[in-house]
Amino acid sequence: MHVIIGFLSSIVTILWLLHRLAEMGIDLGGLNPWSWKRRRKFRAAYEANPIFRLDDPLEATAVLMVAVAKADGDMSGAERRELLDAFTERFHLSNSDAAALLTASTHMLGNGDAVRDSLESVLQPSVDKFSPTQATSAVELLEQVAAVDGAASDAQQALIERARTTLAGHVSSTPATWS
């Protein structure tokens, strides 16, 4: 009987100490491996670069167009106007939506290292959703943006070729338009 009383006293003491630690702000729930894994997965998704999560072909193409415009330095006014015109004419967006898409694409692109270094990873979430006509149109739009200030630079040509090869091998068979 004295063993049972000693065992129950030990359990009560441990529970009381855990309660006092929790009152002082020390939470031992962080030692839970499932909770830790869930928090780590959420933090990785939350802190990740959003350019690697683009799953809409229109948004991915817009970011690529801005990347081509900024491949050899800052974007010129002529390139900005060409991008806005392409967004309104080819993507069938209003002027305000086209300006918002350009701003969002420029912000997501940042300095452009993510696209230059790993274009395939940027296109990976959306490449299977491109129809053959969208893939062809995307490459044409990239070439159109590169030709605004004369002949395309070597950096622009390299980016266009990588986009062409990435889009050529992974398009879906479902027909779709930009709208």
Name the shape in a single word.
elongated
User: How many individual helices?
Assistant: 9
The helix content, as a percent range, equals 55-70%
What is the strand content? Answer: under 5%
SSE-based structural type: mainly alpha
Write down the secondary-structure element order. HHHHHHHHH
Radius of gyration: 26 Å
* Uncertain stretches of 5 or more adjacent residues: none
Distance between the termini: 79 Å
Largest sheet: none
The number of strands is: 0
* Mean pLDDT metric: 88
Report on this structure:
This protein is an all-alpha fold and 179 residues long. 66% of the residues lie in helices and 0% in strands. It contains nine helices and no strands. α3 packs antiparallel against α9 (154-168) and α8 packs antiparallel against α9. It is elongated, with a radius of gyration of 26 Å. The N and C termini lie far apart (79 Å). The mean pLDDT is 88.
